[in-house]
């Protein structure tokens, strides 16, 4: 059963990726089909034990999310984020509980608990949606921080409501004290262990090959230890631990994150199949007209009101408030919390608490589908997403990279050149190409550079080793198949001491077209050019008049009719379709002779072209 769930879960993720759907939509559909609909997956486990296992999985997910948060991301929207993670949860719970009681017809105990659960906005859903919608940096940071920080906050609020209505005889003082203790334990334990792990890693006490598994075990230990002191404080503790470790100087941070990400994907695949499988057809029948009305009120009134009221005077734009006020997909934490407190509330005498789990699942499904479909169009309408469908980040300023960026910009593709030399950037600035002056691997670039539109990277400096270093650093973020670098100039079959291909990116353009050859050909009169292809003038027609690839021209990229960029990789086929723009490196209309700046005429397009100078 475990293997079957893993296979089905990963297969669902692959299907969602191919269909460009949020993975949770496919996972929920599969989980509901395998569980209450067909009964093929049945978890023969005590509900308490299952909830404990689910809680450990959620702890790992929240730690990974917390570690991905960087304070520099919210530099310009810190007040907005602060309001949404402090005032926002209290407003959302109060408004949500009122809606559940008056619209959904639930008792105050059930309404308060479900109001706390629906405070969470689900980082496991938000982050994939942000990658697909390619929002501007500040807008994405607001949604990302709110989703990750409010998850443990929502859980604590739900538990506080649960304890109040099940232990009301203990008095409000003891319940508030328990909640304060949960906050204290979460912050102190999470921050303390986070700093402690950083110190151990810096001193080399933990060997490199044991850092990732040690950290994984410590995360689980912190979650269990915090829960043992104060119930349900573990999620807050691991989130704080992740934020601490993500914002201190830790050389292994990216490697540790890369280890946690595939584990998170597996956990999501399993949890979103296991939890829906615990539902029954009778549970689904509890979703009546009043529950549907409650869900609509939560979507159309409670969420927008929460965002607009909590961000009054925060200085954020109307467009940001509008988008954030609509986007609030729920995820695995809401489902896991509902699975824990729902049965407990039923046992305490609240019969309508059996509606909590199916209602939360309905909210998850509705919000993920609606927000997944509407996020991109709404962001574009509000001007909060990338203007172009594709974008290229070029590392290294030179005459030909400026020409390439200009041709891409003319074809509707966003292009940016990054270089740490102000002098080399002069021609890029004069050509009105977007530039970043500084080290692309610096902390400043990581937290302040807006690469919303970037889909591909080209490492094009004169240093092969630096190109490989940058390609290796940016590969996990963009995908190694989208990170390119110029060919290694020391490349020879007999040379066993050259840079290993495994440490760099995809070789761009041609195996024999390195930086210095490009530079020399540019001085001989070659330039980056582009041609818009049509049905009447295809790429085959173009090649028939321009000679041999590798001698008279080199393909560089193509931009499809709908704006999709494809850089040419060495050794692959290059056959852009009608409507696409072909970008290539070829001899220009004028040719420089020496360094005198005198221009010599070259043959017209319909005249025979001499072979280019063979530059070593």
What's the topology here?
Layout: H1 2-19, H2 23-37, H3 47-67, H4 78-102, H5 108-117, H6 123-133, H7 137-166, H8 172-203, H9 208-229, H10 234-246, H11 253-277, H12 281-285, H13 289-310, H14 318-326, H15 332-347, H16 356-382, E1 391-395, H17 399-410, E2 414-419, H18 426-430, E3 434-437, H19 443-448, E4 456-459, H20 464-478, E5 483-485, E6 506-507, H21 515-523, E7 526-532, H22 539-546, E8 553-559, E9 565-567, E10 581-587, E11 590-592, E12 599-601
Parallel strand pairs: 1-2, 1-4, 2-3, 4-5, 5-6
Antiparallel strand pairs: 7-10, 8-9, 8-10, 11-12
Helix pairs in contact: 1-2, 1-11, 2-11, 3-9, 3-10, 3-11, 3-15, 4-5, 4-7, 4-13, 5-7, 5-15, 6-7, 6-16, 7-8, 7-15, 8-9, 8-10, 9-10, 11-15, 13-14, 14-16, 15-16
In short:
This protein is α/β, with parallel strands linked by helices and 616 residues long. The chain has two domains: 43-252 and 287-382, Na+/H+ antiporter like fold (Up-down Bundle), CATH 1.20.1530; 391-601, NAD(P)-binding Rossmann-like Domain (Rossmann fold). It is 58% helix and 9% strand.
